[in-house]
Amino acid sequence: MVLNCVCPWSGNLSMVSWTKVPEKYPVAVFHPEYGVTFSHHYRERIEFLRTTPMDGSISMRNVTHQDIGVYHCSVQTFPRGPWTKDVQVEDLDEPPDEESEGSEAMEPYAEQVAESGNNATIRCDHQHSGTVHQVILEMMPHGQPWGIIGVCKKVDGRLVSEDYGDRGTIGCADSLDASLHLTGVVREDGGFYRCSFSTDAGLLTTTVLLTVSPPGGFSLTVYMMYIYIGAGASGLLLLIAIIAVAVKHR
Question: Which of 23, 141, 170, 190 has the fewest CB atoms within 10 Å distance of its CB?
């Protein structure tokens, strides 16, 4: 399936970006200098055609019912500025794919535990080599498919952050290490979080598993404090008993 997006005027194309509306989920980005990057859901299924210098059209393979919707194409040009177009992907004849992305098995790069009601910061730091052009932060709640919650990228040398989630705040560092700050953690915040780094060396990913514990749950610090208090109290009682026996036998 081809989603056509050809800018009608001539000029210099600086970037093409595709998003799925109304959620504005990032789909694909083309940059003449940095290359292309894709959201995880569309990776290896989308290709930029580039038949002409001002062509931002894409080809989508293995289309399913999950791909139905409106796609927004934005072509950034110089000197005339942006040109946009919306493309509708219609219903399909094939039945929906019954397999769920939520069944994907994976080993987390790191594990983190947060108590319900507290604040938590999830950091997707990665020891990447080369230059990072874009980071896509995704979340997969337990038993559900991946969803994009934020993007950090460099556009014309400027740091740009895009927040697509309704939970937490996305933080972007100059090195494009991304973070998600959650205020008042709830049970639904638990699950896998993944950062996909688009670099000169290719696509690199790191995954964090967040587990939300109930309030007032087990705390090693409090447990050790109780042990120390108990040991101190026992020692004090033993000392009092020894002194009492010594005084009695005088």
Answer: 23
